[in-house]
Amino acid sequence: MDTQTVLHYLQNLQSKIVEALELVDGKTFLHDSWNRNEGGGGTSCLLEGGNVFERAGVGFSHVLGNKLPPAATVAHPEAAGRSWEALGVSLVLHPRNPYIPTVHMNIRFFVAKAPAGSENDIASLPLQASQGGELENAQTAQKVRQAFANETNNGAAAKAAEDIWWFGGGMDLTPYYGFEEDCVHFHRTNKTALDPFSPAYYPKFKKQCDEYFYLKHRKEPRGIGGIFFDDFNELGFERSFELQRAVGDSFLNAYLPILQRRKDTPYTELKRDFQAYRRGRYVEFNLVYDRGTLFGLQSNGRTESILMSMPPIVKWRYDWKPEAGSAEAKLYSDFLIDKDWLA
Question: In the chain, what is the straight-line distance between the N-terminal and C-terminal CA atoms, in Å?
């Protein structure tokens, strides 16, 4: 397991994406490097008031801690109390033009360190002869081995003796005015990235994305989905890392063609008003459900970097409904639905 290789890849990916977005927008990102008192740090790259992006944030972080926060131990109770290390690149792009969808992408690597004095440590210790002689030594050895055998049977000893690690990530698209060709392109690019690893991964990760980015209190999805995976280590470190790289490297291919198609589409203030209203759903999800946001806040992360995913202008209305037959109503009826975009 090579954490440094993952770190270098993520830093290079951040630079590559920022450079590409600067070419599209014509303005330069602010680069804000920071350190975390508990360990680690990162670089937040932010563009506000751009020609294309009203706000665009591309963040890299590498943070460490002595004890996992609750957001991480819910899914991994066996990791409670362990020291940990988390690396990731996360981005959210909020374009000015309401015909360009908002997009989110995140890829990450996480390690919960094996505690000192784990099975491997104790089992490898030489058993010294005591004053009781060889018989007592043999009896003691047998007791120790039996104790570990019992733990192994329960599945606990093996977990305690190893680092717990996994990759996670994905990307999803949140349109305000939907276009089927954009949705198909986004999902096809995701599928193309995953198919070399297994044709089963795209439908599996798409389903996980649809389930994760769902606002239960609204009974509606945040957008048209994409892919989402977490706790992924089933291919072993090298191959699992290859899959993460394939996802990260496909982001620009998935999003830039859509942006280029829509960025010069004329729009009215009424369209902008609907965009601001729908952005409210984005805020609700990030603050109520998003595990990354909760992890960052609970682990005493840098608040400015955690919340740079929020859109700069948002509106809420009381019990608002779109006019029947309108383009706004079509978003709900034709796009915010459970759909196989590649069928």
Answer: 38
Three-state SS sequence of 43-110: EEEEEECCCCEEEEEEEEEEEEECCCCHHHHCCCHHHCCCCEEEEEEEEEEEECCCCCCEEEEEEEEE
Q: Which residue in 31, 76, 94, 104 is the catalytic one?
A: 104
Would you kindly state where each structural domain of the chain is located, as residue ranges? 3-113+163-335, 119-158
CA distance 108 to 244: 8
Which two three-digit tokens encode residue 177?
């005015």
Q: Give the whole-angstrom CA distance, residue 88 versus residue 248.
A: 11
Residues 6+ apart with CB under 8 A from 315: 273, 276, 277, 279, 280
Quick one: average pLDDT of 308-326?
A: 94
Greatest mean pLDDT among 71-75, 273-277, 295-299, 301-305 lies in: 273-277
CA–CA gap between residue 117 and residue 124 (Å, rounded)? 10
Active-site annotation holds for 217: no
Q: Is the pLDDT of residue 120 over 60?
A: no
> What is the C-alpha to C-alpha distance for residues 65 and 84, in angstroms, rounded to an integer?
5
- Alpha-helix residue ranges (DSSP H) falling in 154-265: 156-160, 180-194, 201-212, 236-249, 251-262
CATH C-level class of 3-113+163-335: alpha beta
pTM given for the model: 0.84
Q: What is the pLDDT of residue 294?
A: 82
Burial zone of 83 (CB within 10 Å; 0-12 exposed, 13-18 middle, 19+ buried): middle
Residue 235 has pLDDT above 50, yes or no: yes
